[in-house]
Amino acid sequence: MDNPTLRIKDFILRKVLKITGTVLGFGTISLLMMCKYGTIEEYEAEIHGKVTSSKSGEAISNIQISATNNYDTVRTNASGEYKIYISKGGEIIIKAIDIDGIENGEFQTSEKLYDFSSEICDIKLDPK
Fold first, then answer.
1. 44-125: which CATH architecture?
2. Domain segments of the chain: what residues?
3. How buried is residue 59: exposed, middle or buried, by Cβ count under 10 Å (0-12/13-18/19+)?
4. What is the mean pLDDT of residues 17-42?
5. pLDDT at 118
6. Global pTM?
7. Pairwise CA distance, residues 6 & 76, whole Å
8. Facing residues of 75 across strands?
9. How many Å separate Cα 34 from the centre of its chain?
10. What is the DSSP string of 40-87?
11. DSSP symbol at 107
12. In this predicted model, what pLDDT tens digit does every residue of 55-112 receive, in sequence order?
């Protein structure tokens, strides 16, 4: 005899087991990847610094900062300061680009090799 109540209970139980298995599977995969590759903290470093004019020593705002191993870009604040997160390891080049034209003066693009000896990376830009 075909009992509709048992079919519904069976259907719900199968769905619950399927969802539970999926969730546990992703958790297990995440744990295994952390064991093999490490945690996020091991792969990220924070670099911060100040961008100034090589001629006047004044802070430069609105300068775009990027790193070669990072798809993120940031801009300097009114005090010329910036903070960017990068992946650790390999050669990192910090690039500073004056993107606002003559608003804060015109400056040449700068590329600076970052060596991980400090989390501070100050940059001096030459006027054009």
1. Sandwich (2.60)
2. 1-38, 44-125
3. middle
4. 56
5. 81
6. 0.64
7. 65
8. 64
9. 18
10. HHHHEEEEEEEEEETTT--B--SEEEEETT-S-EEE--TTSEEEEEEE
11. B
12. 999 999 999 999 887 767 899 999 999 999 887 767 788 999 998 878 878 999 999 9
